[in-house]
Design a protein that fits this description.
The first copy, chain A, has 299 residues and is mainly alpha-helical. Chain A has three domains: 72 residues, Arc Repressor Mutant, subunit A (Orthogonal Bundle), CATH 1.10.10; 63 residues, Orthogonal Bundle (Arc Repressor Mutant, subunit A), CATH 1.10.10.10; 141 residues, GntR ligand-binding domain-like (Four Helix Bundle (Hemerythrin (Met), subunit A), Up-down Bundle), CATH 1.20.120. Chain A has 13 helices and five strands. A three-stranded antiparallel β-sheet of chain A has the order 3-5-4. In chain A, strands 1-2 form a two-stranded antiparallel sheet. In chain A, a hairpin with a 2-residue loop joins β1 and β2. The N and C termini of chain A lie far apart (60 Å). The relative contact order of chain A is 0.08. The structure holds a DNA duplex (30 and 30 nucleotides).
Chain lengths: 299, 299
DNA sequence: AAAATGTTTTTTCCCGATAAAAGACATTAC
DNA sequence: GTAATGTCTTTTATCGGGAAAAAACATTTT
């Protein structure tokens, strides 16, 4: 077995959800762009849907015969990319204790443990190395640098530099720029979430990322935009890991975001700078407080 | 053939150079650390040196029998890493015209052209992607973003941000920090090079990198330090590519460096900021002037 | 007993091969 | 004649295998 068909399975599942909405499916190329896959994959999906009696398919006509049942879906875990599987396993090991800084990382062992080939693990480690948590020894093993306090400080230092600059660039954008509409929409979503904070307070993580990515995009600098991948990755796992006072933290953050958004809309650089600094400071505090090691004694 | 023995060949060549200096070689572990390879490789080297009559080897005694001749050395091209070979080929293609932005990159074609396996090319592209010149389309090809004016501007924007901050951190370092000695040494090298500029003006590239890396190291931030890899890579190929007015440019740069170094030694943040800005500005000009495309009409 | 050498095991690096997925070309339908 | 479908080709994603290199273990030497 050389390659799993997770692309097909994932697209198939997403296509099933489309089935409930229409009586007839669109053309193959249209479905392809809709699902983000090639026509080859679209045709595999249609073939199976015909076989399982979901649709009647003859050339251009693709009539929906019945609504999909839960059994029609492929299991969630079969739709993941290998890269996602490896990343999850790796991060679980890294965060679930026993991951001391300086520890060696063994490609072969990782591959065997996860049940994948070494090539995939190697490629993952190379991609992952840009996050600054691991380092390669030439012709030898990888070294874990660890999710330490130093790491968090270095990360936030860059983040603050980049976000302050991006926020300043944001207010300088012309009024007809589409970012203002995006900002408006995000503000509305913040208000909605603020109302439902009691029940959906974990949905904040995703909104947070979209908000900050929008601001970073104003920098029009690929290195700044790309750097947000590092932050997003860390926060993604951080949110999963550190559930302490999650609700309060998110409530505070939503409040800070709303002030920040108001400042951006005012187009007053001073206000923006202040709001941005305030939010970044509390974000840093949140991150730092979740790192057990290195809690230096306060004199 | 699954793996070339370039590590062995490169270490062998370096070991040959050691031969001229001593009558007896040190112990195997010592040689290993000296050459940066494992004992396994050291023993392969010693075995061959014995076979070719360079040394007499019996357990601890490794007596040099004769000086190495040019024929003893492995050819230079056999000592390169696969990664180096691929990078060179790739950059040659990229810089030697015909590399339009938006162009597709074909792993298989690249691999065939260079004469290596696809895995190595894939790994190279993944590593290379952090330089911001290429981008991956999920489940599909890579896209060349091109060495454009926009790229150069985005790169220098970050560079300036990082270096100004690093330089500011530099002057704040305590007087007993080893960086001051390093700086002193670099200053001396600059003076030497300034004197020999007529004959060795291309040695500047290497000195330039060491100087800026020293400054960046003062940031004590892995992201800033790592970012210099991007700059170094671009400048490396830029120096090879753009030989126009090389001597004058380097002369100017050496002068700017010396002012910059003096400012650092004065520990006066204002002076440092000014010297740093001035140098970075001319570095940016040099880089921009070498990019043909986008030479906007001057009104 | 500390440090070297001798020997064996493990890991990294890289290739070729193969199924999945994308893409290109040919043909048909409207 | 444009846009779809049908068919064929190319490329990507991934694995297993094997040589190079590292690392671990055992034995000898000083």
């Amino acid at each position: 077995m050389s390659k799993s068909n997770n692309v097909y399975k994932d697209a198939y599942n997403r296509c099933l959800r489309l089935l409930g909405e229409t009586r007839n499916l669109p053309s193959e190329p249209e479905l392809g762009t809709l699902l983000g896959v090639s026509r080859t994959t679209v045709r595999s999906i249609l073939t199976r849907m015909e076989e399982t009696g979901l649709i009647a398919w003859a050339k251009r006509s693709k009539t929906v015969l019945r609504d999909p049942t839960p059994e029609d879906f492929f299991p969630e875990e079969e739709t993941d990319t290998l890269a996602e599987i490896i990343e999850r396993s790796f991060m679980r090991r890294l965060l679930a204790g026993g991951a001391e800084a300086g520890m060696q990382i063994n490609e072969l062992e990782l591959a065997r443990e996860i049940g994948v080939g070494t090539t995939s693990v190697r490629e993952f480690l190379i991609r992952f190395s840009r996050f600054g948590l691991i380092e390669k020894r030439r012709n030898s093993h990888w070294v874990l640098k660890g999710f330490t306090r130093a790491f968090a400080l270095e990360l936030t230092e860059i983040r603050e530099m980049f976000e302050l600059r991006s926020a300043a660039a944001f207010v300088a954008l012309p009024p007809d720029s589409p970012v203002w509409a995006d900002l408006e929409r995000l503000e509305a979503e913040h208000h909605v979430l603020a109302g439902e904070i009691a029940t959906r307070f974990n949905a904040f993580s995703e909104l947070d990322e979209r908000f900050h990515r929008l601001i970073h995009s104003a920098s029009r600098n690929r290195f700044i935009v790309d750097f947000y991948d590092v932050i997003a990755m860390i926060f993604h796992y951080h949110y999963q890991w550190n559930k302490a006072q999650e609700r309060e933290r998110n409530e505070v953050a939503i409040g800070e975001h709303l002030v920040y958004i108001a400042a951006l809309k005012s187009r007053d650089p001073g206000k923006v700078d202040a709001a941005c600094r305030k939010h970044l400071k509390s974000a840093r505090q949140t991150l730092l407080s979740s790192i057990p090691e290195g809690r230096q004694p306060q004199p």
